[in-house]
Amino acid sequence: MRRRDFLYTASLGVGATMLPSLDTFGRLITVEEALTPIDVKLKKQMADVALNSAKSKGASYADVRIGRYLNQVVATRDSRVENVANSESYGIGVRVLANGSWGFAATNNMDNDSIAKTAELAVAIAKGNSKLMSDPVQLAPQKGYGEVSWKTPLETNAFEVPIPQKIDLLLNVNSEALKGGAKYVNSSIFMVNEQKYFASTDGSYVDQDIHRIWPNFTVTKIDAASGKFETRNALSSPMGMGYEYLTPKEEEKIKGGPVTMYKKRYDMFEDVKEATIHVSEKLKAKPITAGKYDLVLDPSHLFLTIHESVGHPTELDRVLGYEANFAGTSFLTLDKWESKKFNFGSDQVDIIADKMEVGSLGAVGYDDEGVKCGKWDIIKKGILVNYQTIRDQAHILGLKESQGCCYADSWDSIQFQRMPNVSLAPDNTELTAADMVKDVERGIYMFGRNSYSIDQQRYNFQFSAQLAYEIKDGKIVGMFKDAAYQSNTQEFWNACVKRCGKNDYRLGGTFSDGKGQPSQASAVSHGSATTRFNGVKVINTGSKLG
Amino acid sequence: MAILSKEEAQAILKKVLSYSKAESCEVSLNGSNGGNIRYARNAVSTAGQINVMSLSVNSTFGKKTGSASINEFDDASLKKVVSRAEELAMLAPENPEFMPLLGAQTFPESATFNATTAAMTPDTRAEMVGKSLSIAKAAGLDAAGFLENSTRFNSVMNSKGLFAYNKSSNVSFSVTIRNKEGTGSGYVEQDFNDLNKMDVLALSKIAASKATGSAGAKAIEPGKYTVILEPLAASDILSNMFRGFDARSADEGRSFMSKKGGGTRLGEQLFSQNVNIYSDPMNPELPSATWSGDGLTLKKTQWVEKGIVKNLSYSRFWAEKKGVEPIPFSRSIVIEGGTQSLQDLIKSTEKGILVTRFWYIRSVDPQTLLLTGLTRDGTFYIENGEIKFPIKNFRFNESPIIMLNNVEALGKPVRTGSGMIPPMKIKDFTFSSLSDAI
What we know:
The complex is a heterodimer of chains A (546) and B (438).
Chain A: H1 2-10, E1 27-28, H2 31-34, H3 40-56, E2 61-77, E3 80-98, E4 101-107, H4 112-130, E5 146-151, H5 163-179, E6 184-200, E7 204-223, E8 228-233, E9 253-254, E10 261-262, H6 268-284, E11 286-287, E12 291-297, H7 299-311, H8 316-320, H9 334-338, E13 351-354, E14 375-380, E15 383-384, E16 406-407, E17 416-417, E18 421-424, H10 433-437, E19 442-454, E20 460-472, E21 475-481, E22 483-488, H11 489-494, E23 496-499, E24 506-515, E25 520-528, E26 531-540
Parallel strand pairs in A: 5-7, 11-21, 12-19
Antiparallel strand pairs in A: 1-3, 2-3, 2-6, 3-4, 6-7, 7-8, 9-10, 12-26, 13-14, 13-18, 14-15, 16-17, 19-20, 20-21, 20-22, 22-26, 23-26, 24-25
Helix pairs in contact in A: 3-4, 5-6
Chain B: H1 6-18, E1 24-40, E2 43-61, E3 64-70, H2 75-91, H3 115-118, H4 122-138, E4 141-158, E5 163-179, E6 185-192, H5 200-213, E7 223-229, H6 231-242, H7 247-251, E8 277-279, E9 301-305, E10 308-309, H8 316-322, E11 333-335, H9 342-347, E12 351-365, E13 370-383, E14 386-390, E15 394-398, H10 400-403, E16 407-410, E17 414-416, E18 419-421, E19 424-434
Parallel strand pairs in B: 7-12, 11-18
Antiparallel strand pairs in B: 1-2, 1-4, 2-3, 4-5, 5-6, 7-19, 8-9, 8-11, 9-10, 12-13, 13-14, 13-15, 15-19, 16-19, 17-18
């Protein structure tokens, strides 16, 4: 992974095709090709070749994922287009259980002979590994669904929107920032379409068409006299939606606070205008004095704190030690769950896992081992009540079936337990952000994600924001710079004193949650309403070079 | 059959170029074949083998470039990918930063390929993991680890006569060993081009010894301490800094390498006098390909000499704009050190903290490269030249630039994740809070 960091440096400003050891093999294709799906009959036929080959070589269970992963990126800088690319990664991955052990093999050579040999190799690997296995894998039963399908609910397939329209939007956004005095502005739209076909020896053939979109920008201003620079990123969210996310709607905006915020429709043009003003304010902002503050956290910021401090420690594979060598383990050990009284947070804290939430990044019909997706409580009134599981872990929690949290980021990656959408429920009242701010004596109102870091068992964390407003005696009085809060997960969630109602509920999310070896990326959303935490330690992160 | 020889790759690339009608054309052909095995809770959890090959074409008319790629290699498919790239080029916007292709170059042979590593099989991997597990099991500890090997080839040819080919192999291993109570944890990681250098038994023993030695950690107050960073810890924190050795972002005023009032800090004394950093693709301990993404020859390059910034990397475009020679950045970074071992550095320390590794490092302030992150998998208190007791993990808030101004001693460099990195003794390193994580 670190070696890739160096590659990143080496690739600055150059075309990628000549890069030695480039780790992506996605092929570049035309839009027309991207819009032509693979015939589902052909996928079923290829899947059956793999399943039959695996069974004939001695697999007790096998599943096949035929994946066609399409990405489109349109990226601009200042007044020019930096990159327009459509890429496709297409291939097949076969996972088998043989002699009680897992084996996996993958190829992008899609002829029948190659597919059969790939399945055969997976069985050979499983048998080889079984020599090092002490307890055979226990797979939760799963009924076959026959031939079924699922599609992201969307109004406009982003891949069908002409590229010049996307370029126009981004160059207009850039032009507005430059007009407002920005020194540099980068903007982009990243679109993903996962066409995934899953089949297993349980008798499921699942065809899914999953869409995601992520508009973003960064506005930079430089103060020539001091040599200081500041940036502000878009307050958009990556979403499990089509291009309709980029069609603004007044009823999807939240106005009245220091920043306009967006629900399921985003106004990129309006946000960049505000961002350009914010960057000037950031350059002149007052350095924060370290100490205890009440925090009012907007969902555009809080989503990442939920992700790191609630989503990750409730992943059962981490709790059990399967991630010990990379992402880490978890402080939420099984004894805390078994006690049924572990005080994770205050009674304001209701955390829900939901693999079906419309518009979210994690929404799918079925997971990557053929389990129909659902919704369940993880923290109820502050108490830890559940985790996130897959088929070979369900028995550990005494569950009779998986919770459907299995995911692989590509056809050539092995599926494993990944985070569903994990969200903080809003309050059952009509409370608004103004209600969160009005009785704060000394506080900070934070928007947007910035620096974030947390330890490997998810106790100690440090987060900062795109925008940090000073609250004094119930009023927003200006902007702080160099503010970051440091806390401990349990202490922080017990400091949660109130939440806004569902009218303020919004999704934040990330395209690139990293976990596993080899590392895999996953896209996941976290919803919340604006929420208040009292008496949190805040540090000043300002520093100087000699 | 993902690994093609130089001649096989050359033949396919020539054929593809013969189909081109563009003003200029660049074709690359890459393939990899590799496998991995992952284990946790003292048993194998997942294992797999992946085999891929892909060909990409960049066709250019004027300053308009189109790209297309494919993973089928019959003549009809090859013709199709070329015509698709040409169609896309016609539709593409002009790229004002387009640089004309380079002509034929001479690249030295690299030393990145090793036949023993390339011959690894699922059984070789399982056998190595078996050795690592035997150490953990014998000591009553729990191991979680990952072993991966890959062989890959990268090749490129363009219509101006440039041809480059590289074949490489790599094997990497890491293991975390924890005690059953979850009160102690140890870690090692290592990668080599040559499998024969990889000793999973010895490495697993180090992780096991740290797991036992770090149990029962005491809390000490956060603050400024003299630290001894093991090479892995030093590499974790410094890899963030090397990205900043880029002239363009410095010239644009948005990097720690930017100079107040404009320009870069090239030629300035940015670090202690004992800091010397260079890259060399021919370093026998850390070989890399001998050609860069710009099609330039990678040569030995001094980045920092006696603490002074001697070079920044310039892309071909930025070099032309600034009227200087382009300088590609290299992956084979060497931080020069002395002859002292880690033990010698500990011995010479009156009071200090030994750090095995850092974790979850993120930028807090790009202007000063202030970073935050945590210690992990074995942090120890040193007094009077000896490790006295394990201590609880810390969060740090520190800049590698400030850190390299506070260097008291550098030991003997060893190959780690990001280069040849010495163990380091650094004064006044800032820890800002305690973590309960083990």
